[in-house]
Each structure stands twice: as structure tokens, then as C-alpha cells.
Amino acid sequence: xxxxxxxxxRAYLTQLLQPDYDVLLAADGRAAVEVALAQPVELxxxxxxxxxxxxxxxxxxxxxxxxTARLPIVLLTARAGEEESVQGRHAGADxxxxxxxxxxxxxxxxxxxxxxxxxxxxxxxxxRNQLAMLASLAEAGLRLADxxxxxQILQTAGQILxxxxxxxxxxxxxxxxPAPAQSSPAYIAGAPLLDREALTTAATxxxxxxxxxxxxxxxxxxxxxxxxxxxxxxxxxxxxxxxAVLALPLHxxxxxxxxxxxxxxxxxxxxxxxxxxxxxxxxxALAYDNxxxxxxxxxLALTLQRALLPHHLPQVPGxxxxxxxxxxxxxxxxxxxxxxxxxxxxxxxGLAIGDVMGHDVEAATVMGQLRSALHSLAMEGAGPAQxxxxxxxxxxxxxxxxxxxxxxAVYDPHRHRLRYAASGHLPPLLVAxxxxxxxxxxxxxxxxxxxxGDREVAFPPGTSLLLYTDGLVENRALSLDDGLAALRQTCDxxxxxxxxxPQQITERALELLNTPDRVDDDAALLAATAExxxxxxxxxx
Length: 541
Prior knowledge:
There is one protein chain. By secondary structure, the chain is of the alpha+beta class. Residues 176-182, 213-239 and 536-541 have low confidence and may be disordered. Helix 2 (29-38) packs parallel to helix 3, helix 5 runs parallel beside helix 8 (271-307) and helix 6 (150-161) packs antiparallel against helix 8. The protein has helices at 7-17, 29-38, 55-64, 82-91, 103-144, 150-161, 196-208, 271-307, 361-379, 384-397, 480-492, 502-509, 534-540, and strands at 2-3, 25-26, 44-47, 73-77, 95-98, 168-173, 187-190, 244-252, 255-264, 319-326, 335-343, 349-359, 404-412, 417-423, 429-431, 436-437, 455-458, 464-468, 523-530. Helix content is 38%, strand content 21%. A hairpin with a 2-residue loop joins strand 8 (244-252) and strand 9. The strands form 4 sheets. A 5-stranded parallel β-sheet has the order 2-1-3-4-5, sandwiched between helices.
């Protein structure tokens, strides 16, 4: 666009430029703004001294509008001098040409301005595309990492890739199969362009690093997968168009987990697409590897945790028992919650529950040591308070800074009496006609110099006792007292018959684990219900 109030100058400039460019004309700056906003303009060549709106005002006006802000602008003026050039640059002009000028000089300035403008737009476009690609990859990475379910990760990959990047994809994994070429894809989705054998062959070449078949060399077979019958089928194409194939390795932590194979109807994958999909395959591999590691480590952790708990409860006359252990969702962390039931030599039954501070292997190790020590001390005939006092000394002798809470109770089925003591543990819940917590004298946890005291209460047949760890009642929205009250109310709502069934008591108590804002922690439960002893049954007969 040529902007000049002198008609002769406009005509002269038009004559110079028209052989190579389409030229728009404007008589002053205000008219030039209207033209620039109404029609596409690639460069503005403007005089400085004009009525209504001079060249400097025109530059400022064009720079102020987002639609014309990046237009290259060359100012022309008869007022040569450094001050005018600086003023033009400050206004935002790209170039400044003093009159008189030669035709060659003007054309060179115009050509340079256009080339620089196009280069700048190219760089900006590439930058925007790169930013968009990075944002897209980041979003895809977040979607892939949003779950720790390996199968869900593969399905999410399919949702990301289909149909924007491929018409068919398959994901092949090496860990579960002796040879990729002999195994089916772990995940396959999209249009049936290639059969499973062709997909697996492409994946095998990528995993093994052998020379793959050229992209597009796989014909699209008819009937590779079951499809609904077409009542009016089109004649078969004897020369179907080849499918474009891109196979990418799935690398994570210096290991090849498998391969991602993408197939689409037409069009080779460009270098930009290849780079993008290569990055996406890496994010897919990382997400899948993290998920499988999580599941493997969690399985090992739970196996260790359950191995430290009693496999079978002793069959003790006069009492029915039920236990439950619920692991947290903390992945591979191992908790220190535990329970135990002991058949004591005098016919009594020992009931123990405890919780070691922490969620790691050391907590589980200390838990196993405490459980074993309590078992030995209880078998010697020591009372609950004495057992816990000696257990406190034992824990302090270990090379650990962990502490633990513990409750130990002894039920005598002949006398129907319950003797108990606790070291920093939550109170046991007596489930009877009037459900209530048993009183506990204050005592520090084990490992901190605990000096517990014994308590003894009547425990007649039909009475139940619930022991539990804090994971059952902790809630972010409730105080501990409110959590304990919720447990008591839950068990108090049981029908009379259910209150004498330890299994129903534990199942009802476990409903608290479904409440909102629950703290994610392990929970161990032990319920015991007193039954008439053999001596009582014989006397009644």
C-alpha cells in the first residue's frame, strides 16, 4: 500500500512497484488505516508529511491494532537527517528512506521489508506450532498419568491418537510374551487397515531394531477383522491404496517395553508428526512403566503385610472371632497395623491390636517384632498391663525411633471376665444392649516409657468387643471424638441378633471407610463375641 498526499508521487511509486506487486493507494494516513483494515496488506510505503494523519501517526495507529501490528512499514520523507530517522524508528517504522531515492534503492528496501516480514511470520508460526505441540504433549502426558491402571493407560492412548494421528493403532508389549512376533497386541483399536500379523511384524522390527518394511508397503486387506456385512457391497479394488505405517519403540528407564504402531489410510507421516508421536510414545511408555511398577510393588507390599499377620485364628471355646485388614491406597507403602489372637495355656484367649508409627518396611519389621514379643510374653501368663510394660522396654531396646500404640485384652471364658490394658491406643468398643467404649487409664505409646494399668469388666455371653486401629475413625472433616462417636452410633444401630455376630460387627464398622474425607490409612479390626462356656452348658443340662 502506497500512502502519499501527492498524486504525482503516488503515480510514480505505482509505476515502479506494479510490475512485481499489487498496489493499493491512499491519500493520507486516515484513509490508509481504513484500507489496511479492509483489505490484506503485506507492506506499507508511506510519506511522512500528510494532512489529517501524518506518517508517524499512521505508524502508531497501525501498531495499536492487533490486525496490523506486525505490518512492515517504510517511511519516505524529504527531511533527511538523523533526528527524523530516530523519530520514525521510535514511532515503530521498520525502515526510513530519505528523498530523493533511486528506483533500485526503493525496490531493494521493499523487497527486504517483505522478506523480513515473511521470515518473521514463519518464525512466529513455527514458535506457535511448537508451543501448541508442547502444550498438547503436556496435556497428553497428564491424561496418561492420570491413572495407575495399565489397561486404562492403553485405552487413553487410543483416545489421544484416534482419529487425529491414525486410523488404526496397536500397542505391543514385550514383558509378558517370549517373542513379540508370536504374541497378539496388548491393545488394538481403530479401523481394520492391517491384520494382526502385519501389525506385529512392524512392532517386531521396531523392538528388535531390524530394518522395517517401507512405510506404505502394507496393503489394506479386506476382511481382516469381522465387520458387519454390507447389503450392497462395492466392487473390490484390485489395487487398494497402501496404508501409511509408523512404528515407534516404547522406551522407559533405559528399557524397551514394546512398540506403538500407527496406521492411516493415506499420507506419509511428516517429520514434525514423527517427532510429536515419538515424544508421545515416550510419555506412554513412562506412564505404563510407572503403573506396572506401582502394581508390582503394591502386590509385594501387601504380600509382606499379610504375611506378618496371623494366617489362621485359633479355635478357642467360649468365643467367636472375626478379623479384617484393609490396606491403604498408598501404593507400595507397608503399614504397621496388626492384630493377633492367642489361645492361652489356662483356656483364656488373648486379643491384641496395635499400630506402629510410619508406612514403610521398617514399620512392618517393628510390627512383626512386637507381635512376636507380645506372643511370647502372653504365653508366660503375664497380665495385660505387665505384657505392655515389658513390650515397651523391648521396643526401647531396639535400634529404632519408632513408637507404637497397642491394646491387649485377656478374656476368661470360665469367669466371663475381660481384663485389658492399652498403651496410647484407642478405647475398645463394647457392643451389647448399651454400646459404649470401655474406660482406659491414660498411658504413653510403646517406646516412650509406657506405664499402662489394668482394667477388668464383666463380659457375659452375648457381649461383643471391637478392637480397631485409628485408620477406621480418622476423618479430615471430623475430630477424633466425632469419629469415635460415628463408630459407636454405627455399631449401636445393629439389630440385636447382629450384635452377637463378630462378622456382622466388622462389616458394619467397615462402612465408615466409605465416608467422605476419610484419611487414607490402613485399618485393622478384631471382633470377639462371648459364648456360653462348656461348663455353663453342662450345668444347665
